Amino acid sequence: MKDWKDFVEIWDIVLKNGKSSENNRFMEVYGVYGTSFNHSEEFRCFMARDKREKFLIVSGGSVFDLFEGDKFNISGNIVKKCPLSNHNSSLIRNIFPYTEPVTVGENPASIGLGDRLGLASAGHLRLIKGKAVFPVLAQQSIRELNLTGRTYDDVLAAAVWAVFQEGYKKGYGADGDHLKTEEEVRMALKCGFTMITLDCSEYIDNSIEGLSPEELMDQYELIDESVMAYWERKYLNRTLKFGDYELSINIRELASAVLIYSDAIDFAESIYKTAIRDYDRAVDFEISIDETLTPTSVKAHYIIAAELQGGGVKIKNMAPRFCGEFQKGIDYKGDTGQFANEFELHSKIAEYFGYRISVHSGSDKFSVFPIIGDKTHGSVHLKTAGTNWLEALRVVALENPGLFRRMYKYAIKRLPDAKKFYHIFTEREMVQNIEKYSDGNLPELLEKEESRQALHITYGYLLCDKDSGGRYIFREEFFATLHTYEETYYDFLKKHIGRHLDLLGI
Ligand SMILES: [Zn+2]
User: Fold this and answer.
1) CB distance 41 to 54 below 8 Å
2) Is 224 in the active site?
3) Among the four 54, 81, 248, 306, which has the fewest Cβ within 10 Å?
4) Which domain does 37 fall in, by range?
5) Pairing of the two strands 77-82 and 70-74
6) Pair (275, 175) in one structural domain
7) Do 442 and 482 belong to one domain?
């Protein structure tokens, strides 16, 4: 059995002959990711794997001593076998600038591919190969960091290793997703993140939608007169044009938009001015008003867009809350005709004001992807996250059914706790009984909405919970299974996320 050490014996020949056509053979024979074999002057390095883990091999150059790892002498070649640590990843970022995250730039389409496990990104890079889409590989919310016990440094390092492993040089983004405070925004920027998604939900007043017309106007009347005059002068009963479209806003619509969104607009403007605008590098700034109970009406969207523009706030994306439901892990629920009509107007407003629509919880929304692709002409950001976790569980269902059964039952037990963080329709009693499924049929559970949702949102407990002896219940066996079946996982991702891109027309 040959391994990475045998590869070091032949790497002079590999360099001389050019390597690319033999990348697959290097994996089969030596466990070496051929696409990662790279050099910079005297420095040489590559990534490899054994039965237990992945690692980095480095040699030569003035940076050699900076890497943490164990030294080996292989026929006179002094090399170091290094863990895929955050420290080593930041060295790789310095040596190979293509591994640094960048902004989306002129790319029309981008896709957020949040990877809660730090394992999926290489598969994501394989699936977007040859497609005109910019990948945002590192993308986590603070909620996800808390539930998985990771930091932004960990999340970014995982993306760097994936980019390096695959030899991907076309640029990728890193999204500090659903950040709610200036402190969180600054922390993500400091870690190197290139995109900030500001979650304005805590500044959105969800009580307004339920008010009667009289109650609504009573509340509106409480607004300071000069402020009210400002809103009415700008928006009330005027023809507001955006491209070939126009709309007009009556007093009730205006009152409602002002009461629901004016604090959120102020918040977005203040974060932009204090933390984003003067930052020492470019940042893709996204405004999210999606994680709230109140759907964003087209007219309210127009007002928000016009106010942000008036306040000098430059945004890359806006994530409205659309009609219908975008629940985790399942298809769109709602009236697709109404969605198509409203989405067209939302995307025209975005186009007019010079940003893109961002669609959140975008995993598995197959029935609306063609509409999204069509109305935006592919100029859109789609965020997906949890679905690659479900694809990881598909690998477990297929290759380690015993583990899958234990995890499944535990997910059902923990479902009520997870529901405190995520809005889904599935209740504990609704989740399919796994005893009715033979081992061979377990992957079918990943086609059922209820079991998908239960598994989708309990990831934090499944990954991080420990038994009474302080040992992880599933974590080690889960990661070991995915390590063994790495290629299977990439294939599943390619098939599943690939379907998203196909339907979007990308
Ligand atoms: Zn969101």
Assistant:
1) no
2) no
3) 248
4) 4-94
5) antiparallel
6) yes
7) yes
Task: Give yes or no for residue 19 having a pLDDT over 70.
Answer: no
From the CA of 272, how far away is ligand 1's center (Å)?
19
What's the gap in Å between 424 CA and the centre of ligand 1?
14
Q: How many domains does the chain have?
A: 3
Residue 408 lies in a domain: yes
Q: Are residues 276 and 424 in the same domain?
A: no
CA distances from 277 to 36, 62, 184 (A): 36, 37, 16
Q: Is 286 a catalytic residue?
A: yes
For ligand 1, an ion, list residues with CB under 5 A.
290-291, 360
Residue range 417-426, pLDDT digits in tens? 999 988 899 9
Tell me how far the alpha carbon of residue 236 lies from the centroid of ligand 1, in angstroms: 30
What's the pTM value of the predicted model, to 2 decimals? 0.94
Cα of 358 to ligand 1 centre, how many Å?
9
CATH number at residue 340: 3.20.20.70
Which residue is catalytic, options 144, 166, 175, 177?
A: 177
Residues 369 and 321 in one domain: yes
Q: Rounded to an integer, what distance in angstroms lies between the CA atom of residue 471 and that of residue 468?
A: 7
Mean pLDDT of 182-193: 97
Ligand 1 centre to CA of 363 (Å) is 12
pLDDT tens per residue across span 132-159: 999 999 999 998 899 889 999 999 999 9
**Could you tell me where the beta strands, DSSP code E, fall in 69-133?**
70-74, 77-82, 110-113
